[in-house]
Amino acid sequence: MTKRRKKKGFTGKFIVLLFLIGAIVSLSILFKKEITHTFHPLFEKLGVIEERKEVILYFSDRNGEYLIAERRKILRKEGIKGEARQVVDELIKGPRGKLIPTLPPQTRCLTLKLDEKGTALVDFNRALSKDHPGGSSAEILTTYSIVNSLTQNFPQIRQVQILIEGKPIETIAGHLSLKTPIPAKPDLIKKN
Asked: Which parts of the chain fold into alpha helices (H)?
């Protein structure tokens, strides 16, 4: 008889526990926005939530004539250099849609620095030049994919100096001079 009472008591407690869990889950689904808004600062401090920022990346159209925007989310960082570096890394990953990549996939961004004049110094490994497909259009789109993606997302960046392994380069593939920092060229951007 005592075993039966213990079993009934355990079953009752288990059912109550399941009911409470169901109620908590239901309420959290109903009031998700309110809960998130209330506890967001705490979650951010604990590193549970990583805030994201939307940026626009520029990749080549199918004809290799224009740059077309693709939206992407990156982690929001304290400094502009960290966010700008993520933009370059996302460019290297390539487009998610039907656009054409502008940087060789073996390319790596080694460093990204920003000077007081608003020039971003972006240092790549040799693959940017060595594995580039060549051609004047491809070289122009590669350069302005980097430049426009950085200058359009970060008003603090006015121009971009492309380096390879810490040194200024004359050109990526022999067609466009990169001896001096390059300003944005918005007329290469085709509106969707």
From this structure: 2-30, 32-46, 80-93, 127-130, 136-153
